[in-house]
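Weekly modeling sync, notes
Attendees: S.R. (lead), two postdocs, one rotation student

Agenda item 3: backlog of single-chain predictions. S.R. asked that every request posted to the team notebook include the full sequence so nobody has to chase files. The rotation student volunteered to paste the first one in as an example of the format we agreed on. Action items at the bottom.

Example entry:
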Amino acid sequence: MASNQTSVHDAKFALSVNNMEQQMSLELEKEEFDYSKRSQWLRAAVLGANDGLVSTASLMMGVGAVKQDIKAMILTGFAGLVAGACSMAIGEFVSVYSQLDIQVAQLKRDKRRVLDAEEEKEEDDENLPNPVQAAAASALAFTTGAMVPLLAASFIRQYKVRVAVIVAAVSMALVLFGWLGAALGRAPAARSSLRVLVGGWLAMALTFGLTKLIGSSGL
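Predicted structure, as returned to the notebook:
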């Protein structure tokens, strides 16, 4: 009798363990699926924000190297914001749409080979890239990044203070974007932030120095 009770108890325990393992497996698959589904626009958003920040700040620093007028810097930054956002959106749209065409063509070929694959096809359709979403995220993120140096320079008349505030604001934003990119990619945050920060400093310094050199040469 005791042996039967022990067997029943062991069977219930084994069933409970199996159910827990299956549930954990399903949760892990769901998390991985959700992460892969979000990775497309998250990647575009982080890259777009970083590009907007560095390119707009570098343009403003370059113009500021030869012309200290606040209006010239603001107009240059705004032109860079609009042009960059449009360029990022169009480039991302074309790139992701090409990827979409390739995946759709592959699904059609798979459908011809496997007649009974409706369930598999529906699951694959949910993972197809969205060009409009990627383009909108990229343009919005570029604009967000570009607004940092623009806002930093908008209310400061003194040239040296304005440049220092732009560099400080951009540096803080670069560290933030570097940390965010590392968090999304599950990479070391300190190394990623430092790499993005140094890259941004180099871009601004090169633009400032080369523009100053060309402007002082009388061209």
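Discussion: group reviewed the output briefly. The two ends are 102 Å apart (CA to CA).
Action items: rotation student to repeat for the remaining queue; S.R. to check formatting next week.
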